[in-house]
Amino acid sequence: MAAYLLAEAKVIDTQAYEVYKTLAQAAIARYGGRYLTRGGRSEVLEGRWTTPERLVIVEFASLEQARNFYSSPEYQAARAARRDAADMNMLVVDGLPL
């Protein structure tokens, strides 16, 4: 069953964030992830949401594969590069069975 990683980022340092993006993209590809959206326009339709500055959704083959990506040495290097570049909220959720 697919799993979806959702990341909300508030970018502080755009140059450093570009380094993070490059490293994260490589790690996502290595672990079979596929971007569904990367910071496109978003709009609140209902409730108390605040419009995120940047929302990223990545599809993985499974929750286990998403966890493998997140704990990988490749992504840990990306996280280190992002340390002062952005504030990040991230979660992963199971998709529906097909």
What order do the strands of the largest sheet run in, or round the barrel if closed? 2-3-1-4
Helical content stands at: 25-40%
Compute the average pLDDT.
96
Over the alpha carbons, how many angstroms does the gyration radius reach?
14 Å
CATH architecture: 2-Layer Sandwich
CATH topology: Alpha-Beta Plaits
Strand content: 25-35%
- Label the structural class: alpha+beta
How many separate helices?
3
Give the total of beta strands.
4
Order of helices and strands: EHEEHHE
Supply the key terms.
4 strands, four-stranded antiparallel β-sheet, 98 residues, 3 helices, Alpha-Beta Plaits, alpha+beta, flat
Describe the structure.
By secondary structure, the protein is an alpha+beta fold. It has a single domain (3-94), classed as Alpha-Beta Plaits. It contains three helices and four strands; from the N terminus they run βαββααβ. Helix 1 (14-30) runs antiparallel to helix 3. The longest helix has 17 residues, at 14-30. The radius of gyration is 14 Å and the shape is flat. The relative contact order is 0.37.
